[in-house]
Amino acid sequence: MAQHRDLPAGLMSQLFVNNGNSSFSEFVGRHAPDLLPARGEALATPVGDQVPHATTIVAATCAGGVVMAGDRRATSGNVISQRDIEKVFRTDDYSCMGIAGTASTGIEMARLYRVELEHYEKMEGRTLSVAGKANRLATMIRGNLAMAMQGLVVVPLFAAYDPERDSGRIFSYDVAGGPYERDKFDAIGSGSIFARGSLKKLYRENASADDIVTTVIQALYDAADDDSATGGPDMTRKIWPIVSVIDADGFRRLSDEQVAGVVQRMLEDRMISPDGPIAPLR
Asked: 157 near 97, Cβ under 8 Å?
């Protein structure tokens, strides 16, 4: 904001308060674009697997809300670059997002998106609708398209509680930012095909939040069983999946102790049935 440094304090305050735009990203892009993530700058060579990548995120609706969970592994090619990375982020009191793809870019996007929602609420005096939140995130993903073409791809999964419907909603995206609402459940990342298969088998509509927490942890375990880039629960290091629940009471992240209890019960059952619960045939 160096171009405004010589303005009187009162005029500068008016400039920033009455900027006529509730988008924080556009506001910063107009006054201090150097503070935003690089957009449209071509890299000499695509970075590909040279940087850490986040892997599998799952989400499923429950009675009156939605649950999102993510494994903790980041990989660089065939190397485990981090065992305890966090991939699920609170974005406001009633929403969260999980990231798959380039870890650093995804974390930066999640932080900026949270500020974006806070800025809108302060400027407009109200929160965005769930559809509005999903579309704002789509705009940010679209802004990263040039970097995605160079290999810095980020594809988030967005989940929120909708008070108008008293239910949870899930949105996934393509690399160009297209938002797609998903019914019941979805998964993204390298292990998503295996997690989605597990969710198809185990998901029950209108199940309690506790039951869906168990379901998404089962799905992550199945993903880790078949995808080397997805990390399963690490019993020796006490590293557990991140699990968040959003309902009418707001966003809450389950404690490590709560997740560990669910994992322990799941592993005890898998000692008897290694491939997990069997879905009943009807």
From this structure: yes
CB 189 within 8 A of CB 57: yes
- Average pLDDT value over all residues in the chain: 87
**Cα–Cα distance for residue pair 199/88, rounded to 1 Å:** 19
pTM for this predicted structure? 0.83
The predicted-structure confidence for 99-111, as pLDDT tens digits, reads as follows 999 999 999 999 9
Catalytic residues: 55
What tokens were used for 76?
């660089």
What backbone torsions phi and psi does residue 255 show, to the nearest 5 degrees? -70, 160
Residue 11 burial (CB count, 10 A): 10
